[in-house]
Amino acid sequence: xxxxxxxxxxxxxxxxxxxxxxxxxxxxxxxxxxxxxxxxxxxxxxxxxxxxxxxxxxxxxxxxxxxxxxxxxxxxxxxxxxxxxxxxxxxxxxxxxxxxxxxxxxxxxxxxxxxxxxxxxxxxxxxxxxxxxxxxxxxxxxxxxxxxxxxxxxxxxxxxxxxxxxxxxxxxxxxxxxxxxxxxxxxxxxxxxxxxxxxxxxxxxxxxxxxxxxxxxxxxxxxxxxxxxxxxxxxxxxxxxxxxxxxxxxxxxxxxxxxxxxxxxxxxxxxxxxxxxxxxxxxxxx
Length: 286
Fold this sequence. Notes:
- This protein has nine helices and nine strands.
- By secondary structure, it is of the alpha+beta class.
- It folds into two domains: 3-101, Arc Repressor Mutant, subunit A (Orthogonal Bundle), CATH 1.10.10.60; 129-283, Regulatory factor, effector binding domain (Multidrug-efflux Transporter 1 Regulator Bmrr, Chain A).
- Strands 1, 2, 3, 4, 5, 6, 7, 8 and 9 form a nine-stranded antiparallel β-sheet that branches.
- β3 (183-190) and β4 (195-203) form a beta hairpin.
- α4 crosses α6 (84-95).
């Protein structure tokens, strides 16, 4: 992963702070989708991209309110807030006070500087992985469509799994599985409209039942990581460490194909539960 591209993408975001920020535009500079860019940003910084953008906008907005005669409504519009209420809420969340209080003496404001990415020597983590050329896989499953909002999707995807389990769809998908070792897949499939589809699916050659959908997972090169531990903690920690430690130091970068999670049968609460993360990759510069 070329972190210099992410520095350029952050510069692109900084140039758009006075208005609506086009995350897809920045992501293209980084060489990935908006979802991948937001995900990488979160794992590298422990902060969502939306939070970063809000913090930076409110930092600049506080300068305008302190050093000019601009009205609050004009500052709000300048930074892409058509609703004064939404601007007031964002400003108070960052600074702890209303924008109308900024011109008072002895006011304490919070400054959030532009972020930069640097590779550091970390905790000598060990990864069990392989680079594999996978053939295309035909799957059948259920899907939900989400906006490219990491905070929202991280909260809603587990609910999708819970709903599928409670309605018996997980059992039905496992019964349809055509592989020797039964597995369920979690697929994140991205589009150019700033959203992604998340599938709970299984590899099968059976016909598609009503209210289910099929999808062809494209073949290609994947970094396949082994995960052991209780879910969701073990999987989330692995995904975070892949992005923070393995990918920046590797000779690979994200490829714009679906992310794949592979879940084997077993008790997901056990410390020895087994699953996998398939990261779509390509060689840097290819």
